[in-house]
Design a protein that fits this description.
single chain; 273 residues; alpha/beta; Urease, subunit C, domain 1; TIM Barrel; 2 domains; seven-stranded mixed beta sheet; five-stranded mixed beta sheet; 12 strands; 26% helix
Length: 273
């Protein structure tokens, strides 16, 4: 099919009014004044065309619609340190929310565990079209989830975490143990297999980032501080108070993933949204 006279956003150049051709669901040509071939032609005058939207921090498929407990697979709230769990194992590709996301233009998501745990497990990236998560997946693992601030404090209050200091201490302990574990393995020494530390090796080797849930400015700065201490890559996710420390974030060089922005002030950490 040939679509004409749409306002096209390629994301690589300024938007323009033009045409595009699709064959078997794939864009094959984009330009201006394309001549019809042996194909159906539709006029999209007044309409806008965008590439598929990407949600870089999502729990789509991890928390299912209309099920309740049976579909709550976003947080393993049994231990604040769970790097060995994998988001792909908790994602239900049959849930209606994935189809709704696709119909709304979201074609790719990075999904994984929520923010209950200090270290929550691995994120993965998948396309929202399909019914088999293994076939929909485009990268696994993608990142290791970590969380700072209110969520781990609330989920483990009175048990293993009461302050932000303990969140940082638990993360540092895991990073230090992983570093020691790597050194022993690479030196040829006998070392007992540790599933959690094995999962953290790609983070210490900068093969994947630590994907850090952080709203408040002090939590953002703590992420940056620890990342520099252990020479690891991180992404700053949510970054609600980021505008108050722009120079420090810019100097760190770490990428930010903002949002979600279309919600209310659901807790103290997002009061400045």
């Amino acid at each position: 099919m040939l679509f004409k006279n749409a306002t096209i956003y390629t994301m690589e150049q300024d938007p323009f009014v033009g045409d595009f051709r699709i064959d078997k669901g794939v864009f094959t040509e984009i330009g201006k004044d394309l001549n019809p071939k042996d194909e159906e032609v539709q006029d999209l005058n007044g309409l806008y065309v965008f590439p598929g939207l990407i949600d870089a921090h999502s729990h789509l498929g991890m928390v299912c619609s209309s099920i309740g407990f049976e579909g709550e697979d976003g947080n393993e709230v049994t231990d604040p340190i769970t790097p060995n769990i994998r988001g792909i194992d908790g994602c239900n590709p049959m849930d209606e929310t994935i189809e709704l996301a696709l119909k709304s233009g979201v074609t790719t998501v990075a999904a994984g565990p929520g923010s209950a745990n200090v270290i929550g497990g691995t994120f993965f990236a998948y396309k929202t079209a399909g019914h088999c998560i293994d076939e929909m997946t485009i990268q696994n693992p993608l990142a290791m989830k970590a969380a700072f601030g209110e969520n781990p404090k609330r989920c483990y209050q009175g048990k293993k975490i009461d302050t932000r200091m303990q969140i940082s201490a638990l993360l540092r302990e895991t990073l230090a143990k992983t570093k020691e574990y790597i050194q022993k393995k690479e030196s040829g020494k006998d070392v007992d297999y540790d599933q959690k530390l094995e999962a953290m090796i790609p983070v210490l080797k900068k093969q994947m980032p630590l994907k850090c849930h952080c709203h408040r400015a002090d939590d953002i700065l703590t992420v940056i501080r620890i990342a520099k201490e252990y020479d690891i890559e991180v992404t700053l996710d949510h970054v609600t108070d980021g505008r108050s420390i722009i120079p420090q974030i810019k100097e760190s060089g770490f990428p930010c993933i903002l949002g979600p922005c279309l919600g209310h002030k659901s807790k103290y950490e997002v009061k400045n949204i």
